[in-house]
Automatic annotation (TrEMBL):
The organism of origin for this protein: Caballeronia humi
Upper lineage: Bacteria, Pseudomonadati, Pseudomonadota, Betaproteobacteria, Burkholderiales
Source organism, top-level taxon: Bacteria
Signal peptide limits: 1-21
Keyword Signal carried by entry: yes
Record key words, sorted: Signal
Protein name: Lipoprotein
Length: 152
């Protein structure tokens, strides 16, 4: 009986340390993830340029999402939600930046099942998911750049 109680106390202590470590990682990573989300934005002007960048966005989503594109039109791209946790899936939106449709903002959003807990804090897979999403979102702008084709 004493061994069972002692094991339970040790396990609770380990769980508390693990939880504290996840919250510390969350506090450090969340601002970096917010920055990556803000960086995953491309602006364009002119119908041709916007069409080219939107096409590149669709290619990027198809390449980096773990799931296939299930819907795409001139305003949004959605991939399916994965069944398993820890897998990144993406969406992109194209928002007009003027009334005549000559300018637009294209943004990318990465999501990952298991990244956040029910309380809005870090889930069990937060560190892995945040790292993957940050990398994908930080590289989006360059991939959608028209100049990357000319220079590269």
């Amino acid at each position: 009986m004493r061994k069972t109680i002692l094991c339970a106390i040790v396990l609770l202590g380990l769980a508390a340390c693990s939880s504290d470590a996840r919250w510390n990682e969350f506090r450090q990573s969340e601002p970096q993830l917010k920055e990556a989300r803000e960086f995953a934005l491309v602006e364009c002007s002119g119908r041709e340029e916007c069409s080219q960048r939107w096409e590149r966005a669709m290619e990027y989503v198809a390449r980096y999402s773990a799931t296939r594109i299930r819907h795409a039109d001139s305003a949004g791209i959605e991939t399916g939600r994965p069944l398993e946790a820890g897998v990144v899936y993406l969406s992109a939106t194209r928002t007009p930046a003027d009334k005549i449709g000559e300018r637009a903002r294209i943004s990318l959003k990465g999501m990952c099942k298991g990244m956040y807990g029910m309380d809005g804090g870090p889930g069990w897979l937060y560190a892995s998911c945040a790292s993957q999403i940050r990398s994908i979102e930080m590289n989006f702008r360059e991939s959608c750049s028209i100049w990357s084709e000319i220079v590269g």
